[in-house]
Design goal:
alpha+beta; Nuclear Transport Factor 2, Chain: A; 153 residues
Length: 153
């Protein structure tokens, strides 16, 4: 396989993994993240560092489990694959919409931001090993979200 084809396949696999993560959030399919996020991954969503896939999923669940429908749209993806082909870095815009549930169904909350992700290849699979979200704008009522993570929990 040519280096160019290897690069294209890596970029495509990472783009698909990004979309699968966003869909898992929106569909509340938390178990789907087991095959996408490395067990020892780290993240920072603007609330401070989080370590481990279970903790990352816990943060997302603390906001989304009590929320109504959501949609995480990704765009302007750039992927840089390291020369050895074992690691990659991606950046993409994220625009996420959250609609309230129940008596908050008339409220919405959205963010405009960017994901900066680090990926590591193991065999033929790319794993998310670090995510940092940079929020550029917060719009609407955060009350549509769940309470968020509990301190030390």
């Amino acid at each position: 396989m040519t280096p160019e084809l290897e690069l294209l396949l890596a970029e495509r696999a990472i783009a698909r993994a990004l979309a699968a993560i966003a869909r898992a959030f929106d569909e509340r399919r938390w178990d789907a993240l087991d095959g996408l996020i490395a067990e020892q991954a780290t993240a920072d969503f603007g609330l401070g560092p989080v370590a481990g896939r279970a903790a990352i999923v816990g943060v997302m669940r603390s906001f989304l489990d009590d929320c109504g429908p959501t949609q995480h749209l990704l765009g302007n993806l750039v992927v840089d694959v390291a020369a050895d082909g074992a690691e990659a870095f991606s950046r993409c815009y994220v625009s996420d919409m959250h609609v309230g549930a129940g008596d908050k169904a008339h409220l919405t909350f959205s963010t405009l931001g960017e994901y900066h992700d680090r990926w590591r290849r193991s065999g033929d699979r790319w794993w998310l090993v670090h995510r940092q979200k940079f929020n550029r704008a917060l719009l609407g009522s955060m009350s549509v979200l769940g309470p968020g993570p509990t301190p030390n929990g």
